[in-house]
Amino acid sequence: MKIVILGCGRVGSTLATMMDKAGHKVSVIDQSSDSFQRLDPKFRGETVVGNGVDEDILIRAGIREADAFAAVTNGDNRNIMASQIAREIFKVQKVVCRIYDPIRHITYSKLGMETFCPTLTGAQVLFDAVLSGKSKQA
Q1: pTM of this structure
Q2: What's the CATH number of domain 2-137, 2.60.120.260, 3.90.249.10, 3.30.499.10, 3.40.50.720?
Q3: Which among 8, 26, 95, 115 could bridge 30 via Cys, Cβ 3.0 to 4.6 Å?
Q4: Where are the beta strands (DSSP E) in 2-136?
């Protein structure tokens, strides 16, 4: 499977390493070449420096051959735009977009975009932890 990942922060680098170790072909795009230092030293994939909403950068990363695309930068707008480009222009089958803002997450989910909202996920984990701790003491 060919996967293009936009963003090589903690999540992007971990995802890229996991996918690479699972035997997939992985390309990672980030605006800073320093970000690629987060990748596992044994990472065999490609790294591309550039803006992930630039079609030429996406093409250099192999978007035309991609089976999946994940946008995991720190910017909701960039993730949304890049995901729409991957889905609508390059017809990538599986596109996943990280969106921090819960309202945007709901809006884009309703529009058919596959989104992941760490804000809601984290809040739910904390909610469950607080309540489970409270019920154990009661």
Answers
A1: 0.91
A2: 3.40.50.720
A3: 8
A4: 2-6, 25-30, 46-49, 68-71, 94-98, 114-116
